[in-house]
Automatic annotation (TrEMBL):
<feature type="transmembrane region" description="Helical">
    <location>
        <begin position="247"/>
        <end position="270"/>
    </location>
</feature>
<feature type="transmembrane region" description="Helical">
    <location>
        <begin position="38"/>
        <end position="59"/>
    </location>
</feature>
<feature type="transmembrane region" description="Helical">
    <location>
        <begin position="207"/>
        <end position="226"/>
    </location>
</feature>
<dbReference type="InterPro" id="IPR043428">
    <property type="entry name" value="LivM-like"/>
</dbReference>
<keyword id="KW-0472">Membrane</keyword>
<keyword id="KW-1003">Cell membrane</keyword>
<dbReference type="InterPro" id="IPR001851">
    <property type="entry name" value="ABC_transp_permease"/>
</dbReference>
<dbReference type="GO" id="GO:0015658">
    <property type="term" value="F:branched-chain amino acid transmembrane transporter activity"/>
</dbReference>
<feature type="transmembrane region" description="Helical">
    <location>
        <begin position="297"/>
        <end position="314"/>
    </location>
</feature>
<protein>
    <submittedName>
        <fullName>Putative ABC transporter permease protein</fullName>
    </submittedName>
</protein>
<feature type="transmembrane region" description="Helical">
    <location>
        <begin position="6"/>
        <end position="31"/>
    </location>
</feature>
<feature type="transmembrane region" description="Helical">
    <location>
        <begin position="65"/>
        <end position="85"/>
    </location>
</feature>
<dbReference type="GO" id="GO:0005886">
    <property type="term" value="C:plasma membrane"/>
</dbReference>
<dbReference type="Pfam" id="PF02653">
    <property type="entry name" value="BPD_transp_2"/>
</dbReference>
<keyword id="KW-0812">Transmembrane</keyword>
<keyword id="KW-1133">Transmembrane helix</keyword>
<feature type="transmembrane region" description="Helical">
    <location>
        <begin position="156"/>
        <end position="176"/>
    </location>
</feature>
Length: 329
C-alpha cells in the first residue's frame, strides 16, 4: 500500500477547492449560528442562487461575468430578506424549517423541465467561466507540483482566488465581531429579552446577520460555479448544508478561523479513509472485502464517528471557547 500517495491525496483536499467552498459556506453559517444564534439549515440554497445568478446572466442573457456575480449576491441577500421577515420574530425552529424547505424548493424549481430555457433543467449550465480562467497566470493544461501535491492550472488559480476571499472574509468577521455591532449580536444570541430591554432592535440585528451570512453563502456558490465551470441543480442538495455545519462544529462556532480550519479538517478526514480504503480493495489480492459503493459509505461512517467522539470530549470544537458553549446551553 502506498501511504505516501494516500497522504498526498488527502493533503490536496486539505487546501483544495472543495475545502474553500465549504469554508465559505461555513463562514456564512458562523455569522448565523455562531454569532447570532440563527438556525439556518438551507445555506446551500443561498449558494444555489449565487451560482445560478452567474450562470443565468452570462449564458441565458449574455451579460458580463461581473453582472452575474452582482446578481448572484443580490439574489442571495433577497432570499434572506424573504425568509427572515416572517420568521425572525418567531422561535428559532421556524427559521430552520423555512430555510431547509426553501433550499429544496429552489433546487426542484431550477431542475424542473419548465425552467429549461432559463436554468438548463437537469443538464445545468456551463460555458460561463472563460472570463475568470482567462485571468489565470497558470497554464490550464499543465499540472503544477505544490509540496508533492499536483494541481491543474485552473484549480490552482481558483485556489489562489478562493483562499484570498476566505482570508478577506475572516478579516471582515474579525472586525465585525469586535465592533459594537458584533457585541450586540452576541448579546442577542445569549438573551434576546435582555438585549431588547436595553433598547436594541433584535429583529434588525438578526436580519442583518441573516442577509450578510446568506450573501457569503452566495459567494461560495459563485466560487464553486467558476471553479467547476458548470452548474448542476442536483449538486445543491440539503446534505451540502450539513457538511458545512459539520465543518463549523468541527472548527468551532463563534470563532473567526474555526469555520476555515473545520472545512480543511473535514475534507482531510473525509478523504484520508477513502483513499486508504480504495487502495486496500485494489489489486488482485485486496486487503479488505469491500466494494466501491461500500467504501463510499464507509468514509462517512468513520467521519461521523470521529465528529461524535469529538463532541463528547471537546464540544466547543477545535478553536471554540468552552465558556461560549456553556453560555449557549
Amino acid at each position: 500500500m502506498d501511504i505516501v500517495a494516500v497522504l498526498q491525496v488527502s493533503f490536496a483536499q486539505l487546501i483544495g477547492p472543495s475545502a474553500i467552498f465549504y469554508a465559505l459556506l461555513a463562514i456564512g453559517l458562523n455569522l448565523h449560528y455562531g454569532y447570532a444564534g440563527l438556525l439556518n439549515f438551507g445555506q446551500i440554497g443561498f449558494a444555489l442562487l449565487g451560482g445560478y445568478g452567474v450562470g443565468i446572466m452570462t449564458v441565458t442573457y449574455d451579460q458580463p461575468l461581473w453582472v452575474g456575480i452582482l446578481v448572484g449576491l443580490a439574489l442571495a441577500g433577497l432570499l434572506a430578506l424573504v425568509l427572515g421577515i416572517p420568521t425572525l420574530r418567531l422561535r428559532a425552529d421556524y427559521l430552520a424549517v423555512a430555510t431547509i424547505a426553501a433550499a429544496e424548493i429552489l433546487r426542484l424549481m431550477f431542475r424542473s423541465t419548465a425552467s429549461d430555457s432559463v436554468t438548463g433543467s437537469t443538464r445545468g449550465l456551463w460555458g460561463f467561466a472563460e472570463p475568470f480562467t482567462s485571468l489565470s497566470p497558470f497554464d490550464s493544461s499543465r499540472q503544477y507540483n505544490l509540496l508533492g501535491m499536483r494541481f491543474y492550472g485552473d484549480d490552482l488559480w481558483a485556489m489562489v482566488v478562493g483562499w484570498t476571499l476566505v482570508l478577506l472574509l475572516c478579516g471582515l468577521v474579525h472586525l465585525l465581531s469586535h465592533s459594537p455591532w458584533g457585541r450586540v449580536l452576541e448579546a442577542v444570541r445569549e438573551d434576546e429579552d435582555a438585549a431588547r430591554a436595553l433598547g436594541k432592535n433584535v429583529f434588525a440585528y438578526k436580519m442583518q446577520a441573516l442577509v450578510l451570512g446568506g450573501m457569503i453563502g452566495g459567494l461560495g456558490g459563485i466560487f464553486n460555479a467558476l471553479q467547476t465551470k458548470s452548474i448542476n441543480p442536483d449538486f445543491y442538495s440539503t446534505a451540502q448544508t450539513f457538511f458545512a455545519f459539520g465543518a463549523l462544529i468541527l472548527g468551532g462556532a463563534g470563532t473567526v478561523f474555526g469555520p476555515v480550519l473545520g472545512a480543511m479538517v473535514f475534507w482531510f478526514l473525509l478523504t484520508l479513509p477513502d483513499a486508504f480504503l480504495r487502495q486496500a480493495i485494489a489489486g488482485p489480492d485486496p486487503l479488505l472485502p469491500l466494494t466501491e459503493q461500500q467504501v463510499g459509505a464507509m468514509r462517512y461512517v468513520l467521519l461521523g464517528v470521529l465528529i461524535a467522539v469529538m463532541m463528547v470530549f471537546r464540544p466547543q470544537g477545535i478553536l471554540g471557547s468552552k465558556r461560549k458553549v456553556q453560555l449557549d446551553a
